[in-house]
Request: fold
Amino acid sequence: MCGRFALYSDAFTLSKRFGVHMPPELRPHYNMAPSQNILIMRQEEGKRSFALARWGLIPHWAKDMKIGYSMINARAETVADKPAFRAAFRYRRCLIPANGFYEWQVIPGSKNKQPWFVTLKDRESMAFAGLWERWRSPEGEELESCTIIVTEANGLMRPIHDRMPVILAPADWDAWLGLEDKDAEYLQNLLKPYPTEKLKAWPVSTKVNNPRDDSVECIEKFE
Reply:
């Protein structure tokens, strides 16, 4: 799964990386958590833009927004068919920029888990495969939300956790954002583990366990 991540690149760097203008008021986050508003990049009517969406997808048919708490991730194996995600998979895909993500490793003989931070070796920002939705409450309030697609772990991640977010290579960004429903099989094939040799990971302190702690110390190597 993916339950926490970091995005600390500045607006200029993200604009250059993704080829879309980013408002300069973006501030760094080292501990993004579910239910927070996170940055997504989407394409509507051929135009790409950044937006903020609540992390935890709320299907358009939902009666209560609380369903989003259990929809922070979508499994790659079932995302195209599961009722909560299939419409978004067809029509509302997005990229979710990040500098890295966290995962917790079980410690044999202990109730505690060791958090790890995972990032690209070249330190560039990455893009998770995501979906977004628009939901209208019974009172008429409109809310945009999103989810991160996860897949099986690669060789680096397997000793830490059995799942990881789908990281899309830049060469696949256009296809993910732009292809229509008729290319669903091709899109499904993009949802694979990222190459092990392109990632690196290190243990971090349990500061990241507290979503209120959003400091750079969350990503520092823990000895």
